[in-house]
Amino acid sequence: MRAVKVFAILNQKGGVGKTTTVANLGAAVAARGHSTCLIDLDPQSHLTLHFGVEPNTPEIGVYDVLSGEASLASATVQITDNLAVIGSTIDLAAAEIELAGTVGREQILADHLAEENLPYEFVLIDCPPSLGLLTLNALAAADEVIIPLQAHFLALQGLGKLLETVSLVQRRINPKLRVGGVIFCMYESQTRLASEVTADVEAFLESARGSDTPWANAKIFPTRIRRNVKLAECPSHGQTIFDYDRNCNGAEDYLALAEQFIALAGGSLQSKPTQVAPETPDKPDASAQAIPPEPTSDETVVAANEETVAAANDENPPPSES
Ligand SMILES: Nc1ncnc2c1ncn2[C@@H]1O[C@H](COP(=O)(O)OP(=O)(O)O)[C@@H](O)[C@H]1O
Ligand SMILES: [Mg+2]
């Protein structure tokens, strides 16, 4: 049996492409035959809405899971054979306060993923734009962090704090946590700024090689997600880019990214491909044709550490980006 691999898609900045990436990368990976579950950990419910799931239907969501009233399995909405979503509601915004006195509050999601033995190969978590308790739950549960970045002049602002938080969680509660890579989103390859920022990030990651930081092996994904208005349009239709316009640059980029992601994740590239590819424009739901999910095995339960939430808030040094 294969353990489910959990990825936190994280950047505490809003508007960098987290949700767009979780939705479309997730759909592409599922369509390549890898059973995938997407978890919406943002109270704004953008990922939930992206799939046309109304935030209150079904009535069970991530909030109910974190507050101990439901299982992840009961909160799952099946989108296609290989793709499921666990939705959020605005209630989730209250979870940080409500859980303040709960022992092991940053471990709740990790415990559910470890204990429920969900039938997925990959779980992608769409994180909220903050480094609070919801994000700590994502980091405590994750194997890898993937960081979407926009190549503009403030791109690196906040990266220091993000990486320190990852490092803290890795040291205290989740020793397996690693930074898998950086995805450049809304990329404008013509601009000098884009290539300068890319070079800065590359140099930073190179300088960490061989260090004992969780980002020592982090890579920039070779595919940059180009700015493409279709990616901004498709959520309002409750569709992924592959259902909305499978011939556009956005679909092409996320499909290419999915190949690199699967390779990074150690998933089998032999999985049966299904057609999110361009030549069949009217096919209603390519990802529905994917092969059935594989069973998973238990995850290791990481040791609980009560002080981590406070520590993450108190101990982060100021960002050291340049
Ligand atoms: N590659 C892209 N090209 C054009 N618009 C994009 C692209 N990626 C994301 N967007 C749009 O930019 C906005 C922010 O993206 P989103 O994925 O919601 O970011 P985050 O989840 O980090 O807040 C959304 O309106 C989204 O539709
Ligand atoms: Mg978002």
Order of helices and strands: EEHEHHEEHHEHEHEHEHHHEH
Q: Report the principal-axis shape.
A: globular
Mean pLDDT: 84
Q: Which percent range describes the beta-strand content?
A: 5-15%
Distance between the termini: 44 Å
Counting helices, strands and paired strands, the structural category is: alpha/beta
Largest sheet: 8 strands, mixed
Q: How many structural domains does the protein architecture include?
A: 1
CATH architecture group name:
3-Layer(aba) Sandwich
H/I helix tally = 12
How are the secondary structure elements laid out?
Blueprint lengths: L1 E2 L1 E5 L8 H14 L4 E5 L5 H5 L11 H5 L9 E5 L2 E4 L5 H7 L9 H9 L5 E5 L6 H9 L2 E7 L8 H14 L5 E8 L6 H16 L11 E2 L8 H5 L7 H4 L4 H16 L31 E2 L10 H7 L8
Parallel strand pairs: 1-10, 2-6, 2-7, 3-5, 3-6, 7-8, 8-9
Antiparallel strand pairs: 4-5
Helix pairs in contact: 1-11, 5-6
The protein binds adenosine-5'-diphosphate and magnesium ion.
The site of adenosine-5'-diphosphate (ADP) has 19 residues, from helix 1 and helix 9.
What features would you describe in this structure?
The chain is an alpha/beta fold. It has a single domain (5-315), classed as 3-Layer(aba) Sandwich (Rossmann fold), CATH 3.40.50.300. Helix content is 34%, strand content 14%. It has helices spanning 18-31, 46-50, 62-66, 92-98, 108-116, 133-141, 159-172, 192-207, 229-233, 241-244, 249-264, 308-314, and strands spanning 2-3, 5-9, 36-40, 76-80, 83-86, 122-126, 144-150, 178-185, 219-220, 296-297. The strands form two sheets. Strands 4-5-3-6-2-7-8-9 form an eight-stranded mixed sheet, with helices on both faces. It has a two-stranded parallel ribbon with strand order 1-10. α8 (192-207) links the parallel β8 (178-185) and β9. The radius of gyration is 18 Å and the shape is globular. Residues 267-322 have low confidence and may be disordered. The structure holds adenosine-5'-diphosphate and magnesium ion (MG).
